[in-house]
């Protein structure tokens, strides 16, 4: 037998060790309530779908013969021009500063390959989407976790951040708005982060796939970009509730051309995986023009209603503590292990699934053991939450 690489085998084992523990029973007495996937379309919520206008735009592009051919590996010119136009934030951003990717993960992969060499390190948040946790090992790049302040809207602990920095640090990875915390950095805090990066000559990679999904003000890192280079990643996935379309982008805010070599390297990297879907890319100009970059923002009131309801109800359950979010459709909930008589949040999730057929994502699966809890979604209907709360209370009564 020809063996797979040791890296791949180790990653598979880690994934299986988690997901094999959360398998729903086929013949459970209660229907499954599944909160694992960060997919806004999962529950069919009326506010979690693309407008018919968007569907009609895509349909019209499908019929054009030129939209079924190869294009430049960095994306079609109309798509890159549209992204540059709508996300310039008053800066001199052109199509030459944009790469269209097949999902933000591809952009993160390009950042790893295009910026880092073996033996170097990157700074990533603890808690945060754990993309780099496994894959960086394959390229012998160290992942260093910096602390977030759970009692201060998940802001960065700069004292801890500074302790992780050295001459081999290649970039600072920030997720704003945050998955899984649901936090949204204030304009003042973003400016603090940018100032710190500039003072320490560190490139910022800002994951903004949840762009605009704030209950209040949202400020992009691109808006405040000044002297130092910032790479912002975004996409249609959450902004237009089309995660299956996988149309995303990278934007280089770099007026002093400090990262010009990196940008050229990433343009070359694009030839490895080629480009995203052409007819959807060429739908982007009209979609951005007609539906605007505020499409998701305009629907946040519905997620806020669910957010507030969940905090009210979950906080009444002994052993649960919600940390209020400022946006997205996520809510971090901490659990008291002693109350539920479990050793960790994975065991909690396993028992809840077995007894009540509710599937939750443990917080520890987001690259940390510091926080024990689960990520709640605010995208379901009220009926789903009422049923879930009733089952949670029943679960606690049996502990």
UniProtKB/TrEMBL annotation:
The keyword Transferase applies. Residues 62-372 form the Aminotransferase class I/classII large domain. This is Aminotransferase class I/classII large domain-containing protein. The keyword Transferase applies. Keywords: Aminotransferase, Pyridoxal phosphate, Transferase. Its cofactor is pyridoxal 5'-phosphate. One of its GO terms (biological process) is L-tyrosine catabolic process. It comes from Paramecium sonneborni.
